Amino acid sequence: MDESEIERTMLELVAARGSAASICPSEVARALADETHWRSLMGLVRQVAIRLADAGKIEILRKGKPVPRDAVRGVIRLRQPLSRQHL
After folding, report:
1. Checking CA distances to 27, which of 18, 38, 77, 83 falls within 20 to 30 Å?
2. Mean pLDDT in each 10-residue stretch from start to end of the chain (87 residues)?
3. Are 57 and 67 in contact (CB under 8 A)?
4. Domain range for residue 45?
5. Global pTM?
C-alpha cells in the first residue's frame, strides 16, 4: 500500500466528515482494503496520521481533545484542524 494513497484517502474522509466531526483511523483502512485485510494497514495508517498532524493537515484526538504526537496511543480519532475547517 502506497502512503500517498493512505494520505489522500485520509484527507478526503476527514474533509467529507465536516467541521464538527472526526473519523476513526479504521475508516481509512477499511476504505483501502477488504474486510479480511484492513487491520494489517492500521500501523501504517497511524504513521501517516502522525505525519499529517505534524504538518498541520489534521488533528489527532484522544477523548475528544487534540493530543501531541507523544500521546498518540490507544483509541484515537482524526479531524480537520480547527483553523482549516472554515477554509
Report:
1. 83
2. 94 90 97 95 96 95 92 94 61
3. no
4. 3-84
5. 0.90
